[in-house]
Structures are given as structure tokens and as C-alpha cells.
Specification:
alpha/beta, 5-stranded parallel sheet, Alpha/beta knot, single chain
Length: 156
């Protein structure tokens, strides 16, 4: 089983990019992990919110395969504590399907992406920048792996 984090747009803050790379490298000891960055839309400022979501949605859907278990990071998704997330992730890994977690653009997802998704998760009821949420998601995957292995990273 492979875990993929799919994001729209590059990480512009080099400090965040460095943290993401650090956790990406840590994860390779636990599970095959890939971070896929879809390009920013050109001339996005000239497009309406719905046009941006539709164009980003087309890019996202092209990056997916039918066998992927697709979970969107969405404000209306299910919230979990880290221990619950680790259990959820263990069940996903036991299924044998590749898991793809998706962080959309600033306006969220198109209806077509919601239709393709197998589920939704929320990191918090608070709003965070799409740049910051990347590090939060990858750190939680790493935390879940250490919880599942009984390693001392997580303290409860």
C-alpha cells in the first residue's frame, strides 16, 4: 500500500517546504509515501471561483487512478484525535488499496472531485492556509505511523 499526498500548487515558503521534506523522508521508513504537487493554474485571478475549482478538479481527476482510495482534506470532513487517525490509517493500510489524501486549492473542490472521493477528513474546525495544512497532514501521517509502532513520538 502506498500513501500519496496530492496538493494543488507549490509550497512557496521555503521553511514549510523544508519541514515537509523532513517528514517526507521520515515517512519512508514506515510506508511508501509520495507527495504529488499539481501546478498552479495560470491566470487564475482572471477566473471565477467556480472556474478555478473546475479547472483544478480536472487536474486532480487526471492524477487519480480507479484503484485509489481517495480522501479529501475538507472542512466538512470527519475530525479525529491522533490515536483515532492512526487506527483509521491502519484499517486503510489493511485494505491493500493505495490511499490518496488530497488538499485542494483555496476555494476547495469541484463537485466532480467530491463525487470521486471515498471520504473526507478535517484537520480542524479552524481555517489554515493551504501551505500550512500540508505540513500538518504529513506530520499526522508520521505521528500515526509512530503510534502504530509503539514508538515514543506521541504522548497521550
Amino acid at each position: 500500500m502506498r500513501i500519496t499526498l496530492l496538493t494543488v500548487g507549490k509550497t512557496t515558503d521555503p521553511r514549510l517546504a523544508s519541514l515537509i521534506e523532513d517528514y517526507r523522508q521520515r515517512l519512508t521508513h514506515y510506508v511508501p509515501f509520495e507527495w504529488v504537487v499539481l501546478p498552479d493554474l495560470k491566470n487564475a485571478k482572471a477566473l471565477s471561483e467556480e472556474q478555478v475549482k473546475a479547472a483544478e478538479g480536472e487536474m486532480i481527476l487526471r492524477a487519480l487512478t480507479p484503484s485509489m482510495d481517495v480522501v479529501l482534506l475538507d472542512e466538512h470532513g470527519k475530525e479525529m484525535r491522533s490515536i483515532e487517525y492512526a487506527d483509521w490509517l491502519q484499517k486503510k493500510m489493511s485494505s491493500g488499496r493505495d490511499l490518496t489524501l488530497i488538499i485542494g486549492g483555496p476555494y476547495g473542490f469541484s463537485p466532480a472531485v467530491y463525487e470521486r472521493a471515498n471520504g473526507k477528513l478535517s484537520i480542524s474546525q479552524m481555517t489554515f492556509s493551504h501551505q500550512m495544512i500540508r505540513i500538518m497532514v504529513i506530520e499526522q501521517i508520521y505521528r500515526a505511523m509512530t503510534i502504530l509502532r509503539g514508538e515514543p513520538y506521541h504522548h497521550e
